[in-house]
Design a protein that fits this description.
CATH class of the largest domain: Alpha Beta
Shape: globular
Number of strands: 10
Radius of gyration: 20 Å
Bound molecules: adenosine-5'-triphosphate
Helix content: 25-40%
Low-confidence stretches: 279-283
Largest sheet: 6 strands, mixed
Mean pLDDT: 90
CATH architecture of the largest domain: 3-Layer(aba) Sandwich
Distance between the termini: 30 Å
């Protein structure tokens, strides 16, 4: 496996008033890896995803994508007094970088959400096509007056091909919400793939799935990783899925990473057993 660095999270702290949701987090993900982020409820996993994808500007720290700094912030003004994390000084002389989620998507980072967020009143096909429009190269004028027919045709063709690859062609005209739960999850992942990401963030993709659906999802994630040459970063509570699919795992507890390693190493790490697994078997 190549060791080209795709994502580097450096000293990220996210503070909401008195709550430090993510506390000086450092992690690195290399090209082609599937890396999982686990930890008890409220450990700060979704907040970390929200910082990486531009939903929140961090209170402090920086994020690099393929070697380029894409996010950076440090406590300023009144926040300086309130800030309770570490290392603010190292960023103070640098400018703030806080791209919006759509800009992050255009860079090549896509995500899914803990609660499925499909366009409910749109068909399966239109859910994919709308996501494709995020990458549109035409300007507002051509987009408004549909003058760029060639680009639209290409997007439609790519959407059809994507539906075929993920096995949803037979339901292309159905409303997204009429699909069974497992297929809605698959559509949500397909919609993220429509933006042609290199890094895919999945927030609890197996939430609410039965064992059979979870097994199918495990195979699906592995399949799309290979087919689309993806790097995958995943939050998941289903330990069987995490242990089966991850190359490496990071464990968060109270916003702080307490362990990193292969599934085998994590399984046997006493800190993890104490903080999270509680010595119990897989879910
Ligand atoms: N917008 C916000 N404002 C204030 N506090 C927040 C906000 N978002 C998250 N938090 C707090 O930050 C902490 C971490 O929450 P987060 O949702 O990131 O945890 P999590 O590890 O994803 O949990 P779960 O596994 O239950 O989804 C919690 O104490 C939460 O209440």
């Amino acid at each position: 496996m190549s060791t080209e660095n795709v994502l580097k999270v450096e000293n990220i702290t996210m503070q909401f008033g008195g709550v430090i949701a993510v506390d000086n987090m450092n992690l690195e993900i290399n090209k082609g890896e599937i890396v999982s982020l686990i930890g008890p409820n409220g450990a700060g996993k979704t907040t970390a995803f929200n910082v990486i994808t531009g939903v929140y500007a961090p209170s402090n720290g920086a994020i690099y994508y393929k070697g380029n700094k894409i996010v950076q912030n440090h406590p300023q003004g009144k926040m300086k007094k309130l800030y309770r994390g570490e290392n603010p000084a190292m960023y103070e002389s640098h400018r703030v970088l806080a791209p919006t989620p759509d800009k992050i998507t255009c860079l090549g980072i896509a995500r899914t959400f803990q609660n499925i967020r499909l366009f409910k009143s749109q068909t399966v096909f239109d859910n994919i096509l709308i996501a494709k429009h995020m990458l549109r190269t035409s300007n507002v004028f051509t987009a408004t007056f549909h003058l760029n027919g060639k680009e639209e045709a290409r997007m439609r063709e790519e959407s059809e091909r994507l539906l075929e690859i993920v096995g949803l062609t037979d339901v292309r005209n159905e409303l997204a919400t009429s699909l069974p739960y497992g297929k809605q999850r698959r559509l949500e992942i397909a919609r993220a793939l429509a933006t042609k990401p290199e890094l895919l963030l999945l927030d609890e993709p197996a939430a609410g799935m039965n064992p059979q659906e979870t097994l199918e999802l495990t195979e699906f994630i592995d399949e799309i990783r290979k087919k689309f040459d993806l790097t995958v970063f995943m939050i998941e509570h289903h330990m069987d899925l995490v242990m089966e699919i991850s190359d490496r795992i990071y464990v968060l507890d109270f916003g702080k990473p307490i362990a990193e390693g292969t599934p085998e190493e994590i399984r046997n790490n006493p800190k993890v057993i104490e903080a999270y697994l509680g010595g119990a078997d897989d879910e």
